[in-house]
TrEMBL record:
This is Integrase. Pfam families: Arm-DNA-bind_5, Phage_int_SAM_5, Phage_integrase. Residues 427-451 are annotated as: Disordered. Keywords: DNA recombination, DNA-binding. Residues 11-68 form the Arm DNA-binding domain.
Length: 451
């Protein structure tokens, strides 16, 4: 049976919070929370556990606490009968509900707000460098859809809808634990959902929706760099793929996409969207122009690899889905004997999650490997800002994490000395050329007069 008592936790000579203590059963659960009311300790009766009846204000305060007592008692009984989780954030919401401190309208439901974001995705203003643009990217929209669905699943489990006012530390901790331990999501997957919730809360508050103040303090965890296993194809492995005897037409087509992808450094979706119309020539040089889906950034890539030029000019691959390409390139790499035992994660159909282990490398290759291979293979062979301009990375620190390359403090100094050396050689060559030019000869011509 539940026990409900009101008490003070301070004897200060000033108004202090009145707390409500809820005990469920014999020590099964003990919760204590502020009621939102305050009183000076000299006006509090320890014997009744209520304010003294010595003035109108205290009488009104006593009536409010007497109203809260049966309201909480009934709410607890109903929650226990429906197997609803009773914890600090549940108690806080019931106290607010008792006094109508927050009107929990549909606008206050986080799933409704996220649905509105999804419905208006194409017209929403998004801040970009130099101003704003209209429309969320498809991947961003899908991320919100996934977060809304997982919140709805959690609400079904707890039998309680989540309002913005409910987003406190206790709720976020329980939700994150459920994602990691029950759903068995990876840290980064879980963190994306938590990050989306934080973003939505901040936006909602900016638009006048009442949001729990904790929302801005939500911390986002991420996997350490050591937990990221980046699969790339080296130049030597790409040579083996070029030479491999591929029989299947579908696999031949996939090999073309793979070879192009590892030379242009773009995401899988951008790669599969290119057509011959993206190709441009300037003199004898071939260029590939495209606009990246995620960043909306216009990118131009110079194509120099002869085998890629040949594919683009003479046997352009036909378009397939990313899923089919992921399946086919594994077979292509298997045929090319890309079999080195490599650490990585593969989806396990039994658990429904990715499993970390040692696998033959061809099993780990996906379209994500293309962009990473480009960045990794050309790193330190081409200036990093040039690679970032092609790959679309905005920060060098992110780029280095992406290719698993620690910061090299000597790199800029080495590049400076290299470029300085090249400049000096050019100056010396010009000086030597000038010294070798024949000097003009001067001849004195008499004017025919004599003195």
């Amino acid at each position: 049976m539940a026990s409900i008592k009101f008490r003070l936790r301070s004897n200060a000579n000033k108004n202090v919070p009145i707390k409500v203590r809820v005990t469920l059963g014999r020590g099964k659960q003990d919760l204590e929370l502020n009621t939102g009311f305050t009183i000076n300790p000299k006006d509090w009766s320890e014997s009744t556990g209520l304010p003294k009846q010595n003035n109108p204000e205290n009488k009104k305060l006593s009536n409010n606490l007497k109203k809260l007592d049966p309201f909480l008692f009934d709410s607890i009984n109903n929650a226990m009968g429906e197997s609803i989780v009773i914890d600090a954030f549940w108690l806080e919401s019931k106290i607010n509900e008792c006094f109508n401190r927050v009107e929990k309208t549909d606008d206050g439901l986080i799933t409704n707000y996220i649905q509105n974001i999804i419905d208006t995705a194409d017209t929403r203003k998004v801040k970009v460098k130099g101003g704003y643009k209209h429309g969320l990217s498809l991947s961003r929209k899908n991320s919100y859809i996934a977060t809304k669905n997982i919140i709805k699943e959690y609400q079904t489990k707890t039998k309680k809808q989540i309002h913005f006012t409910d987003i406190n530390q206790a709720l976020i901790d329980k939700f994150e634990y459920w994602l990691l331990k029950t759903k068995k999501y990876a840290v980064n997957t879980s963190s994306k959902h938590i990050a989306n919730i934080k973003t939505v809360c901040i936006e909602a508050e900016n638009k006048g929706v009442q949001v729990n103040s904790y929302a801005k303090q939500i911390t986002i965890a991420s996997e350490s760099d050591d937990d990221r296993y980046i699969q790339t194809l080296s130049f030597a492995e790409l040579d083996e793929i070029i030479k491999a005897d591929i029989k299947s037409e579908a696999h031949q087509n996939a090999r073309k996409w793979l070879l192009i992808g590892c030379e242009i450094g773009q995401r899988g979706g951008d790669l599969l969207d290119i057509t011959p119309d993206n190709i441009r020539y300037k003199g004898e040089n071939m260029y590939l122009d495209l606009v990246q889906q995620k960043t909306k950034k216009a990118v131009t890539i110079g194509i120099i690899a002869p085998h890629v030029i040949d594919i683009l000019e003479n046997s352009f691959p036909y378009k397939i889905t990313t899923q089919k390409l992921n399946d086919h390139i594994k077979k292509v790499c298997e045929t090319a004997k890309i079999n080195a035992m490599t650490e990585g994660k593969i989806f396990d159909s039994e658990t429904g999650r990715k499993k970390f282990d040692l696998y033959e490398k061809h099993k780990l290759i996906t379209t994500h490997s293309f962009r990473r291979s480009f960045c990794t293979n050309y790193y330190k062979k081409i200036p990093t800002p040039v690679l970032m301009g092609i790959s679309g990375h905005s920060k060098e620190s992110i780029f280095r994490v992406y290719i698993n390359a620690p910061e090299d403090t000597d790199e800029n100094a080495d590049l400076f000395m290299k470029f300085y050396g090249d400049i000096q050689k050019q100056r010396e060559a010009k000086q030597k050329e000038a010294e070798q030019e024949p000097k003009p000869q001067f001849t004195v011509i008499k004017n025919g007069t004599s003195n």
